[in-house]
Fold this protein.
Amino acid sequence: MEATTFVLFGATGDLAKRKIYPALYNLFIDQKLPASFSVIGLGRRELSNEVFQKNVEQSLRSFSRRAVDDPGSVKAFLEAFRYSVLDVGHKEDYQKLLQLVEQREAELNIPQNRLFYLSVGPEFFDIIATSIKESGLGSTKGWKRLIIEKPFGHDLQSARELNQKLSISFAEHEIFRIDHYLGKPMVQKLEVLQQANPVLQALWTNHYIANVQITAIETVGVEERAGYYDHVGAIRDMFQNHMLQLLMMLSIHLPKGSTSEEVRLKKKRIMEALEPLQKEDVAMNVVRGQYTAGTIQGKAVVGYKDEPGIGQDSMNDTFIAARLEIDDVFWREVPFYIRTGKRTQEKSTRIVIEFKEPLKQHSSTYEEKTNPNLLIFEINPNEGITLQLNTKDPQHEGEFKPILIDFHTSRKDVPEAYENLIYDALRGDPTFFAHWDEVELSWKWVQPILNAFEENLVPLHPYSAGSFGPDEADQLLARDGYHWCTNS
Ligand code: NAD
């Protein structure tokens, strides 16, 4: 891997502390960082290099997956870190930064490969990218890359505007848009599982699959993010990006050895084949909900409107369920159901594939007695794969019982999403980042829903905290003769 300077905007922020430093450290321990590696942290506060390094060390001790017990390794890791003050609007700060970057490149005798990571609010993405270009930081003799956090736009138009601005300073192949769901190991395995298992490959069509259910629900509420979340809701915070990315990753068909370009092209095709919703159809296919007071794991919690910072008149969605269809040869007539929400009974990100039950149609023996075959990909908090089959119940003559073939990995052995993504960005592999085409098509698909919400064409259904969302989300499937497959 080529020597790199990692320039981190937002180095004093929450994301850097909880995710980015621990990810870098774990990569370092696993020997997955370049041999010569320099990190320059940026923030508004004045900090000495020593204090910055201490803060980074503290974050490792609090959040690292790997043990932080070898003083030699910790010291060697922290030696790569320098700090510079930068306010995004101050041009002279970028000149100071350029000097520091060049000084470190000279000290370490490394090429001008620069990775700029924007771990700051989205309102700063544009000005930072522009200033990187104008200051000369972007005029490298090596490569330059931009890692950008979510959210990428607030709707279709703002996303297009942002992309247009970024593209003045960085080419598409230099922009790595993080969708951390794409960094989750099980999501990254979906393609390999298909490619390496002819049995799965053969089943991956509408001949055998009845429906696909994609769930990402959590027990937590809005927490300290009221100001942000109340303007965004589940539709923008989760659905437009993470949920549609999961749908793309599950539904693409790829031959073995496919390149990142092929992955992206196939994902784009899926988005283009997604049946568009007209504003008037949204109410039939999308359920929006907002949590009310309830009990989660024995603890009473307040409703969304009573959360600090949320008004009694808020119409924000804390839950979304939707029915989607992909109009291509593999998936035509297979409904995809997506749901995501806060303050639900359990925390779970999973994809369930429910297979058709042709025997039921042809034999009375199986009528009503078997359960559907299910293939379940657990993504979070546990990682695993489960296959549900039917077998004879030896205790009850003539009856069937479902058995589960189960594989789960221990969390400790599984790299964090940010480890995978930073590693890929360092190597210049864009496979698990969101290409602009995908982002644009996702916003395009979601835009009629945003419009319908705005015009109040879709009811906002209350649901009790601790439930699985509003009953209407169940009816979405019941209409087609299905139900959500849950853990509980
Ligand atoms: P944060 O508020 O904790 O940190 C923001 C950082 O930006 C700080 O280091 C601050 O010094 C810096 N900053 C603010 N104003 C600045 C200015 N004028 N000039 C220079 N620096 C300035 O935010 P965060 O939680 O670390 O999130 C950072 C980004 O990551 C955001 O885009 C957020 O949406 C995204 N994100 C965060 C999380 C998370 O779990 N925290 C998850 C996904 C995406």
Residues 10-16, 43-44, 86-88, 119-122, 149-150 surround nicotinamide-adenine-dinucleotide (CB under 6 Å).
